[in-house]
Amino acid sequence: MVNDDHLAPSLATLKPKRPTFSGNKALEISEPLLFELGRDGVSGVDIEESEAFTPRLGGQERQAALDLPALSEPEAMRHYVRLSQKNYAIDMGIYPLGSCTMKHNPRLNEEMARLPGFADIHPLQPVDTVQGALELIHECGRYLCTLTGMASVAMSPKAGAHGELCGMMSVKAALAARGEDRRTVLVPASAHGTNPATAALLGFKVVTVPAGEDGTVAAEMVREICAKHEGDVAALMLTNPNTCGLFEPQIVAIAEAIHEAGGYFYCDGANLNAILGKVRPGDLGVDAMHINLHKTFSTPHGGGGPGAGPTVLSEALAPFAPLPLIAKTEAGYRLVETAEDCEEKPFGRMTAFHGQMGMFVRAFAWMLSHGADGMRQVAEDAVLNANYVRARLQDLMSLPFPDHPSMHEVLFDESFLEETEVTTLDFAKAMIDEGFHPMTMYFPLVVKGAMLIEPTESESRASLDLFTATLRDLVMAATAGDTSRFVDAPRFAPRRRLDETSAARKPVLRWTPPSGEADAEAAE
To answer: What ranges does the record give for the region Disordered, renumbered to this chain (predicted)?
Structure first.
């Protein structure tokens, strides 16, 4: 028989405030914290008392029990299932985060990643026992080079920022090989924040390239900045399509300008989904570009991982790719682990191993199942969907750059809300009540109150029709003065609007029992 005495205080508190006795609303279960559920003397397993032993931790052994909640196995399972039901997910609906490419992840990819020999692989296995895995990583890298028109690829970076670091470390190594100590890196004002952060981490001085009135970078502006820092320009870090969702029309001239100044061209590959199979970055003059396998190539991402950010390199930077490398020989595939074992000049080793094998398997399965024509259609459909969203909303929502067609994402600003009391944040919160994850807000920073929407190629016309119809209804409500629908939102989410500023500045990272419980424990 289950003892419910520990629930009595919380139920007594809930009854006056909730429409039901339990606090639940049908399948919407009111779920306390794990620490609130836990109670002494409960365990999902039986652990025998350990035999006497002599500690070998030099006096560093724990003196008190772990401060963890105690639950039975069914209670723990139900807790996490209930939490998962409160989370939005790509398998529940459209995930319109701009610059994130949150697309459907085909289950075929998951089946392949779970095959024996991939799912249970270990990085320290003898090389002759992982030939198939090494071949897959090598072939995945070859496909990436073919798609981008680049000479080489480093497969070990773990994510976008890690890939950026790889590309810029290759630049730094190439400059050192030339006997030059260039310190200036040009970064557009609309860039992802990781771009200037990566450059600064490596000791470069970041110089901002302002965006033009049309949201793009002018080649003449790049030339002027290069002339001002003559002999010191190491690289340009540019995203194309850029974070405003626009293709950089002067990108070839920009590449020529940076090369004439003696620098290298790093391209942020976060938005590769828009040009996949349509444009090869290498043909545009790019020297290095990271690729997010967990975005463009449809492997799950979010929540901290797993991720993979291979970095493709031009002929100028290929010799400086980091270790480990995979080499194809007549006898099979081998891992190149040391600089002495290769003819190139690797800048070092960024990470111990190649990373999570499942990332490569899912991406390669996705590429094989799409083929060249299918991947080209991915880009075409992604751009089509973004422009469909634009066409459906541009009469009610304001476009900061109306003269350029959108690529894979469409950018709106908050001008259409100026005569209302509703902000971009309010608008996004109201979307939660409608069952939609909000778009990316307040980014890129070059646009006031930015709302960046990326539907990806995964969404059907019916999905986009419902999404845009909902946004139209919200816009009309805001302009009609129905501010309560926004300032109180979200009203139907498991938690109402939080004080996000205080939460960020004064985070509470440790749960403590309510004062009554703490006093009772102290008394015991």
So the answer is: 497-524
Is the link from the previous residue into 69 a cis peptide, with omega within 30 of 0? no
* Euclidean distance between CA atoms 485 and 494, whole angstroms: 17
Strands 205-209 and 184-188: what pairing? parallel
Q: Where are the beta strands (DSSP E) in 89-221?
A: 152-154, 184-188, 205-209
Q: How far apart are alpha carbons 252 and 219 in whole angstroms?
A: 9
Nearest to 110 by CA among 332, 366, 377, 493: 366
If phi over 0 gives left and psi between -120 and 50 gives alpha, with beta otherwise, what is residue 332? left
Helices (H) and strands (E) in the chain, counts: 15, 12
Q: Is the preceding omega at residue 444 within 30 degrees of 0, hence cis?
A: yes
Distance CA 177, CA 264 (A): 14
Residue with tokens 């009595």: 8
* Residue 346: alpha-carbon gap to chain centroid: 28
Architecture of domain 108-367 in this structure: 3-Layer(aba) Sandwich (3.40)
The pTM score is: 0.89
Architecture of domain 377-505 in this structure = Alpha-Beta Complex (3.90)
Kindly report, as residue ranges, where domains of CATH 3.40.640.10 are found in the chain: 108-367
Q: Please tell me what DSSP assigns to residue 270.
A: G
In the chain, the amino acid numbered 313 is L
Q: Which residues neighbour 312 within 8 Å (Cβ) at sequence distance 6 or greater?
A: 144, 145, 148, 150, 152, 153, 281, 282, 288, 289, 291
Q: Would you write out the chain's pLDDT as a tens digit for each of its 524 residues? A: 444 444 444 444 444 456 788 888 888 888 888 888 888 878 778 878 888 888 899 889 888 888 788 898 899 999 999 998 888 988 899 999 999 999 999 999 999 999 999 999 998 999 999 999 999 999 999 999 999 999 999 999 998 999 999 999 999 999 999 999 999 999 999 999 999 999 999 999 999 999 999 999 999 999 999 999 999 999 999 999 999 999 999 999 999 999 999 999 999 999 999 999 999 999 999 999 999 998 999 887 765 567 899 999 999 999 999 999 999 999 999 999 999 888 889 999 999 888 889 999 999 999 999 999 999 999 999 999 999 999 999 999 999 999 989 999 999 999 999 999 999 999 999 999 999 999 999 999 999 999 999 999 999 999 999 999 999 999 999 999 999 999 999 999 888 888 888 999 999 888 888 776 555 454 45
398 φ/ψ angles, rounded to the nearest 5 degrees = -95, 135
Cα 72–chain centre separation: 35
Closest CA to 409 of 429, 432, 379: 379
User: Dihedrals φ, ψ of 461, to 5°?
Assistant: -65, -40
Can you tell me which residue has the tokens 């991720």? 307
Strands 325-329 and 233-239, how do they pair? unpaired
